Amino acid sequence: MSDHATLTVNGITVELPILRGSCGEPAIDITTLTAQTGYLAYDPGFGNTASCRSAITWIDGDHGILRYRGIPIEQFATKPNFVEVAWLLIFGRLPTTPELKDFSAKLTANAHLHEGLRHHFEGFPVDAPPMAILSAMINAKGCFEDDFLSSDDQQFEDAAARLISKVRTIAAYAYRRAKGLPVIYPDPKLRYIANMLHMMFSMPYDQYVIDPDIEAALNLIFILHADHEQNCSTATVRMVGSSHANLFASAAAGVCALWGPLHGGANVAVIDMLEAIHRGGLSPEDVIRRAKDKSSGFRLMGFGHRVYKNYDPRATMLRDISERIFTKLNRQDPLLDIARKLEALALADPYFVERRLYPNVDFYSGIIFRAIGIPTDMFTVMFAIGRLPGWIAHWKEQHDQPGGRIARPRQVYTGPDLTNYTPIDQRPAPAG
Ligand code: CMC
Description:
CATH class of the domain at 266-372: Mainly Alpha
Largest sheet: 3 strands, antiparallel
Structural class: mainly alpha
Distance between the termini: 61 Å
Bound molecules: carboxymethyl coenzyme *A
Number of strands: 6
Order of helices and strands: EEEHEEEHHHHHHHHHHHHHHHH
């Protein structure tokens, strides 16, 4: 196989090196393209662009394969906990027992929020979107940190533990504020996820009883969301981090990128769509018809993916969890039946088949969150808590790579050519 690609443009021939990832995927290295030819590479949405080298997560979209640090996602179905996976992603290998104990202890020790930080919540309107609060509070948390650009591994681990621990407290406080409920402080006796459920659902006079099956389901949901290579929010974290912005500012930017309905916000949009069908007036068939009609501007939410052209393995696992949770809680949700119907219709429809559109991670997650009692506007916050270790891992990887450059894409300019300034009294009135 050739180790370079030859490109001829406008009479200039250049040889561009070919790189291969550790699982074989080839990439043409165009770092010298503009210098050698004067041409830019045009790739809106970056669908063809590898923006970095990364050793964290591998996806084979054609075969529906996802691996964290080489480990297939399916192997996380029963054994490890989210904290262990977070450590794996950030530090590149599975932790030893003392390392995991130490990291868990750091999470426990850092669960509280500085009282000064807690008072920030009072400034938000009660109906403020929790994703806005989460982003603002992560950034505010940065004001309480000092040296978080340190390349010292121990200091970095401490900062990562503080961020992972406090983000869950921030999320719980945002929920309590929206509900007008008193803040519940973290309980050091509880593990990571149980503590989050406690802070969200306990009352000062009534301790929330942790159901181990719910804790296990949330554990797996967080693991499934923990990283997904260069998705929009992770690419944002790396983009912001490339200017040497600190970890907290970079993660806050990641939350904002995740918020949109084409990314993490899809888990809310899916439930809105299923509820609209459930209310009546719109059938699953109508929804499929609208999704296929380009003039409608509507998409089947929770379907399709930039990389997966096969079943998203996370969606398969989430569908299984949803079945387990509903059986365990002995509950039914009409939205689950509607989701299954929509899925079956889409998978049998040539429009979706030809475009290789399958359910993604957001299709079933919201239904599980609902069953657990998490309100819809907190769904994307749950995604953010799960994705945080991935963001931290990418921030660290980029920070540790020698010779890193600021992310600074170019553009194909389409504005006016050279134009002279016209004084205001000589400007013609706008047409119409
Ligand atoms: N419903 C209907 N048509 C779709 C959908 C959909 N959900 N997704 C893609 N298509 C069509 C699209 O119109 C295009 O058709 P054509 O070739 O005729 O122009 C074709 O499929 C390719 O789509 P694309 O827009 O080029 O795909 P993309 O890689 O730019 O977008 C996506 C990926 C996930 C944004 C998109 O599939 C989508 O909008 N899905 C719905 C929102 C969603 O579920 N987002 C969650 C993504 S996964 C987890 C996450 O990131 O949070």
